[in-house]
Automatic annotation (TrEMBL):
SMART domains: PAZ. It comes from Teladorsagia circumcincta (Brown stomach worm). It comes from the Eukaryota. Gene3D superfamilies: paz domain. This is PAZ domain protein.
Length: 101
């Protein structure tokens, strides 16, 4: 997909992991995610996977119930699966579609 290749080229080298301070200071801005491509930095950074943001889910936040009964919320999912705390509890969740290079 040419669009993803252009995004990767604009990003430069493999995306970096944000510092703890950057994560704590992060404030979700919906306009930054409309018609955007995102890469989960907390997964395999050596082989990044990209997703197109299909929709910003304005009715869901990290404290919303997780669709699988194994986790009570998206917060719990991220803590247990990735050992990550989501600091911006007001941020909306994203509905994404897998894309590839």
């Amino acid at each position: 997909m040419k669009y993803v290749e252009e995004v990767v080229q604009m990003m430069g080298d493999t995306p970096r992991i944000p510092s703890e301070e950057e994560r704590r200071n992060f404030v979700f801005k919906p306009e930054d995610y409309r018609d955007a491509v995102v890469m989960p930095w907390y997964r395999n950074i050596e082989q990044p996977v990209f997703y197109y943001v299909a929709e910003i889910l304005e009715n869901l936040t990290p404290s919303s119930p997780f669709p699988d009964e194994e986790y009570s919320s998206f917060n719990e999912y991220f803590i247990k699966k990735y050992n990550l705390e989501i600091y911006d509890q007001k941020q909306n969740l994203l509905d994404v579609d897998f894309t590839s290079k």
